[in-house]
């Protein structure tokens, strides 16, 4: 799962929106979403590269980097590039996604220091041979019912002085102006509200779900970690959109329509249908005003030496 809580981009996961996931509520077939997860992470690579560059100033010469909820390994392989002296381990509950991660590592020439580990989080981390110098959880924590317990488990897998970095929160992504010339202005703001409700349902339905205020620095501190820091990173792909950005937007809006169909106002449903109709001049396939603008937030903390 490497996702995006942005409920609109996947990977925010792939929430309907960017929470970046979208599934029929909590039953997510990550393998089926592999192509979407890869294309999304590739499109957002500049954002991830900025985040990893920031981490590299704090985490110098890590021996082992663990990507928790790695999905198809796009970010895992970026770690291998940014930290050429590190061994990278991609951990995920979906073996088909890890097959893709390993293949990507081979294509990029980093397979000699790239490994995979399949199993359910956080328990599978007990199988680590060595503690991690950097443990990265990119939009995977919010798929675990008890996030506080998961953070504690993550922290226990760190070497003394090791860093835990979680990617959670940010801002809902934007793809279109407020007034797009069809339907009522403010479509994306209304979709955001519905997606927040969807995300709350998804969280509540997870096994062992525990309601938790999303005060990440405090939660990291409660896991026994120190020196919590937070930094947000921007993805800004202005109009006119590239083919990849356009395909990404179509994927996101398609998932929103399919996942939230029963909650949509009739007017907004009709607008979405037009946006997704390749034959419509006002569709995402043809619009000149389509862009991608989003913010992702990284929170870090260190295990005391």
From TrEMBL:
SUPFAM superfamilies: S-adenosyl-L-methionine-dependent methyltransferases (SSF53335). Residues 1-25 are annotated as: Disordered. InterPro entries: Methyltransf_12, SAM-dependent_MTases_sf. It holds the Pfam family Methyltransf_12. It comes from the Bacteria. GO terms for molecular function: methyltransferase activity. Residues 66-164 form the Methyltransferase type domain. Transmembrane segments: none annotated. Residues 8-22 have a biased composition (Basic residues). This is Trans-aconitate 2-methyltransferase. It comes from Streptomyces sp. R39.
């Amino acid at each position: 799962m490497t996702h995006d809580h942005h409920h609109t981009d996947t990977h925010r996961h792939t929430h309907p929106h960017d929470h970046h996931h979208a599934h029929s509520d909590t039953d997510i077939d990550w393998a089926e979403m592999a192509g979407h997860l890869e294309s999304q992470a590739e499109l957002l690579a500049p954002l991830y590269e900025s985040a990893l560059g920031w981490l590299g100033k704090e985490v110098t010469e890590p021996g082992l980097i663990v990507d928790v909820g790695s999905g198809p390994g796009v970010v895992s392989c970026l770690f291998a590039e940014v930290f050429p002296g590190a061994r990278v381990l991609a951990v995920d509950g979906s073996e088909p996604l890890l097959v893709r991660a390993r293949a990507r590592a081979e294509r990029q020439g980093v397979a000699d220091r790239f490994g995979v580990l399949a199993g359910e989080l956080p328990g599978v981390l007990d199988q680590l041979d060595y503690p991690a110098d950097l443990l990265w959880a990119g939009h995977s924590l919010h798929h675990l019912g008890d996030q506080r317990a998961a953070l504690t488990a993550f922290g226990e897998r760190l070497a003394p002085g090791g860093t835990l970095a979680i990617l959670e929160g940010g801002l809902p992504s934007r793809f279109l102006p407020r007034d797009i010339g069809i339907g009522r202005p403010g479509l994306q703001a209304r979709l955001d509200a519905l997606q927040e409700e969807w995300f709350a349902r998804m969280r509540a339905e997870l096994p062992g779900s525990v309601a938790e205020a999303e005060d990440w620095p405090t939660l990291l501190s409660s896991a026994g970690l120190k020196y919590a820091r937070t930094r947000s990173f921007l993805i800004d792909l202005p109009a006119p959109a590239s083919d990849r950005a356009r395909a990404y937007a179509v994927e996101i809006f398609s998932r929103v329509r399919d996942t939230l169909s029963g909650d949509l106002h009739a007017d907004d449903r009709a607008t979405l249908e037009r946006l997704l109709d390749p034959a419509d001049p006002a569709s995402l396939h043809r619009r000149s005003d389509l862009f991608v603008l989003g913010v992702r937030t990284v929170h870090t903390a260190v295990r005391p030496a």
